[in-house]
Amino acid sequence: MRKYYTRACNFYYGLQARTLINKKLALALCGNKNIAFDNIEILSRDKKNTKVINIKKIKNLGNQLKTIVLNDLKKITSKRSNLSKNLKFSEPLIMGVLNLTPDSFSDGGLYHHSKKAFLHIKNMVDRGANIIDVGGESTRPGSKDVPHKNEWKRLEKVVINFKKKYPKVFLSIDTRKYEIMIKAIKHKSDLINDVSGFNYDVNTIEKIKKFNVWKVLHHMQGTPNTMQINPKYKNVLLDIYDFFEKKINTDFKKFKYKKFIIDPGIGFGKNLKHNLMLMNKISLFHALGFPLLIGTSRKRFINQISGSFDSKERIGGTVASVLYTLMQGVQIFRVHNVNEVKQGIVVFKKIISIK
Question: Which of the following is catalytic: 215, 259, 298, 334?
Fold first, then answer.
């Protein structure tokens, strides 16, 4: 377990970011010169050792701490590999959600017929989705396992025909079962999004380790059936960072292709305070050296905060959380309301581009 952690902070955007980088007053976040930072927060489980310093002050740190910080900065500033020729992390990417389930928490039963599913896919792609995340098993709080044969039956028509209709659209499969992963990969799926962090089945990593696909490394405490029963952490931010770092250095070493995307799992075994802390300081996870994904769309924390101002689709809260985490360099946003989120991002980018 680490003693110190490095989080990029105090961000700049657009022209201001590029100017500061050229003057060597700030560093490019993840190799993207449109987002820069000039401070770091050094975090520790001992709060007395937590502090924020300017990047110019790093040279004054003790040798041991300076080595840790400089190693972290290499990963924080390194350019991320593009998802594909068409999908680059110079722009935020939108992952549109397609639930082919009868019981998902917000849209269960709406798209489980393939004709409706493809109409929804077209709608999301036309409105700015770069990735479509297709799932056949609900992982809402309290949900129970679905046998893999039943899950595949829900997914089959969409997965088999997806690339025939949308060859350039990135296809993600939201599943915990290696049987589904392998079938989806054989039908040219590009990404595996496993909310269990590849822990659901002990055989999963061995079964899929050779495939050249992207993989979302997701954090969840417990299972969907138990995860919201009094979740606890010593320090939610650092505990989850440790989880990812340990997995990358142990179990995930078995993957032949290191195509990982980090998702801290908002709402998966976290209470309101945990979720807010993760979103507030999500830039910590850049020190792992991989792209970041976040899924805040329509989630319960929005209701917990907004109270009487809650709404069915929670678009306002979703967009607010997307833009806040976008400001910390998150690259991929998993959302239901693609058009509204795309609109928010376009407006945000225009505002910060004004000279």
Answer: 334
